[in-house]
Specification:
Structural class: alpha+beta
Strand content: 25-35%
CATH topology: Immunoglobulin-like
Strand order of the largest sheet: 1-4-5-12-8
Shape: globular
Order of helices and strands: EEHEEEEEEEEEEEEHH
Number of helices: 3
């Protein structure tokens, strides 16, 4: 989880799918002999990249922009498994704002609950011939899209208390391990949002320019 209003990035929980200790099939990212390591046996073809969470898949939800009537999210799915491609992958997301989904740029989307206020769960999946196959770990081992969500008429949208982040995520039917909501990126304090000093500086600068212009006219 990450957002434009905070430098904080909430990572996947440590050891979500196991820990590095005792993982013979864990390959360090900087290891340049990956190809030779994973060609020996069927078991080794399932090697995953060494991470804190040790999961084969990571989903990154980034709150990118907050507009007056809409807000934008960048959604990235990364494959950490070597020698394994995910064909016809699916990503199911439970989020209250999906009921007002306005646009999806690079994925296909289908609502899973289509009854009024319950329309808060949907499935994202790839486009045939474009990104329907999630390639193995490496520079091309990810798919991403931006989604645009409309703020509801009740003006209940808020960036506070983790509202912009999904409640549950499923990849190919398996539920993803979610971080604790209290670790999500938080809004800065109101004092950090206020800009009287900067405004005062700009105002003072403009006054100096006006004064100089007046002197030149005189």
């Amino acid at each position: 989880m990450s957002s434009f209003y905070s430098t904080q990035i909430t990572p996947c929980p440590s050891c979500s799918c196991g820990c590095q200790q005792g993982q013979a099939n864990c390959v360090k990212k900087e290891d340049h002999k990956i190809s030779s390591l994973v060609e020996k046996s069927k078991a080794e073809r399932k090697m995953v990249q060494c991470t804190e969470h040790m999961c084969p898949i990571k989903v990154h939800w980034h709150v990118k922009n907050n507009y007056k009537t809409h807000w934008r999210v960048k959604l990235t799915v990364t494959n950490f498994r070597y020698r394994t491609n995910y064909t016809k992958w699916t990503l199911a997301v439970h989020h209250p704002s999906l009921r007002s989904l306005a646009n999806v740029s690079s994925f296909l989307y289908k609502p899973l609950m289509v009854y009024g206020a319950s329309n808060d769960t949907g499935m994202f999946y790839g486009i045939d011939g474009v990104n329907a196959v999630l390639l193995e770990a490496g520079s091309n081992g990810n798919v991403q899209s931006e989604i645009l969500l409309q703020k509801d008429n009740n003006s209940s949208f808020s960036l506070e208390h983790g509202w912009p982040f999904p409640w549950r995520i499923y990849f190919n039917g398996d539920e993803c391990a979610m971080p604790s909501p209290d670790t999500y990126p938080s809004l800065p304090s109101s004092a950090r949002f206020s800009a009287p000093t900067g405004f005062g500086s700009i105002k003072g600068y403009l006054q100096i320019l006006v004064f100089i212009v007046l002197i030149g006219i005189v």
